[in-house]
Amino acid sequence: MLFKQQAWLRQKLLVLGSLAVGSLLYLVARVGSLDRVQPICPIEGRFGARSQAEFPLRALQFKRGLLHEFRKGNTSKEQVRLHDLVQQLPKAIIIGVRKGGTRALLEMLNLHPAVVKASQEIHFFDNDENYAKGIEWYRKKMPFSYPQQITIEKSPAYFITEEVPERIYKMNSSIKLLIIVREPTTRAISDYTQVLEGKERKNKTYYKFEKLAIDPNTCEVNTKYKAVRTSIYTKHLERWLKYFPIEQFHIVDGDRLITEPLPELQLVEKFLNLPPRISQYNLYFNATRGFYCLRFNIIFNKCLAGSKGRIHPEVDPSVITKLRKFFHPFNQKFYQITGRTLNWP
Ligand code: A3P
């Protein structure tokens, strides 16, 4: 009798369990496919106006699925053909600035269903050896995407490399260019911190930031120091402006992207003529990391690697003041040229 009751109970539990698992799976599939059942995602402007019916809105989770597998090389040519996938040259490039938040910007834009990111920094335009391989080599480095999607790559070295503006212009004179900047002194310290970490990893010693940033002979800011030079944004931008009109650039406030990413991303969506699709749901603050992380759907979320968001060494306040004073006129010029005032000290 007892045995019969136990068997009956086990059977009941099994049925209930399967029901619960089934419902959960349904819920997951349903939420994951919500984007797909929403009607259409129009892309207008430079990327070519399309009729609404032409643009199938891809689910965010889909990007984590098939396209992700393609990126890893896990899918066949047949599947590429079947899904009408192509490797497209970028329609927008994050050209810099190093340590401005270029990775965060790329990853966050990739939340948009119409954007596909090139995961690696390609270094096509700044590296002569790569550039000599030709544009087809570059295109083949791009991820698979649907023809209606736009590909974005980021290589921060582009911003400061002499030859790059002309080379990009030759590829596409109407390309959209994104520059993410941070307060110049903070950016320089972040740049230094990255190099310092590399040295420490190799058990090498390195100079203090103060020693590199200030010329010991003149006690003035050392403009030969690369981390300082990179932060003179206006100097680099002026070289770009010989090839592209200012309307083709969009300045992203990297400091605001850290604390308040959504409004910055919405400005980029607008600049790229994309329908607003990134929402607060896609970004959540992770107190342990101290940064916003990305949520694709109820299953997939991710934070940036630990190499993003390093603790900076303490820097002598008088050096910080000197650097800020040094950057000030260049910043004013930068605001004037770009039309974006960032209220840096
Ligand atoms: P720090 O390491 O100085 O904090 P890049 O990707 O261009 O190398 O920029 C790195 C910077 O991105 C980091 O600099 C960090 O502050 C910033 N960042 C912006 N948003 C971030 C995010 N959500 N997660 C981690 N780092 C972020």
From TrEMBL:
Against Pfam families, the record matches this protein to: Sulfotransfer_1
InterPro entries named in the record: NST/OST, P-loop_NTPase, Sulfotransferase_dom
Q: Give the EC number.
A: 2.8.2.-
Question: Which segments constitute the Sulfotransferase domain?
Answer: 90-334
- Alphabetical keyword list: Glycoprotein, Transferase
Tagged with keyword Glycoprotein: yes
UniProt family annotation: Belongs to the sulfotransferase 1 family.
The UniProt entry, under PANTHER family, shows: HEPARAN SULFATE GLUCOSAMINE 3-O-SULFOTRANSFERASE 5 (PTHR10605:SF46), HEPARAN SULFATE SULFOTRANSFERASE (PTHR10605)
Per its record, how is this protein called by name?
Answer: Sulfotransferase
What species was this sequence derived from? Felis catus (Cat)
Its taxonomic placement starts with: Eukaryota, Metazoa, Chordata, Craniata, Vertebrata
